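Data deposition worksheet. Section B asks for the primary sequence of the deposited chain exactly as it was used as input, without tags or linkers unless they were present during the calculation. Section C holds the resulting structure in token form. Section D is free text for depositor observations; keep each observation to a single sentence. Incomplete worksheets are returned to the depositor.
Section A, Depositor: J.P.
Section B:
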Amino acid sequence: MNTNTTAVEADARIGAEADIAVETEAVGRVVAALQYAQVNELVAEFVSLFREDAIWTTGHGKRLTGRDEIAAFTRTVLPGAFLGSGNTAEYEVVHVLFVRPDVAAVKVRQRYLTLAGEQVGEEGSPLYVMAKEDGRWLLTACQNTLVVPE
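Section C:
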């Protein structure tokens, strides 16, 4: 058995690693856009990040199916949540698993903070499954989870 890596194999591996880095950055931009839309209470921008047939389970267990249902829910909870409240949100991508080149499972650390940076409430640990369609990463299946202190 030959265990030597050929130059072609090495080039392919380096190319694949570069592709993963580019796509990891791209899914990170979706998470950043989600955070921006939430903090700025931009319902249409928030909802536009989801696939038409997306599913989302909120941190309190409410299941939402499809962009229309996600939009209806978001219109009731997002306006008034941040602007003028003295609070903000911070979303940090902590892990990305590419199930396929066009499907990623993205684990996020979600914190709500005062403008001074002090945490408000419990931390969240969402999992976002994203699919790449027509060159754009979209939220497809999402589960928000509250982290219970130990």
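Section D:
DSSP finds three helices and six strands in the chain.
Residues 122 and 147 are 6 Å apart (CA to CA).
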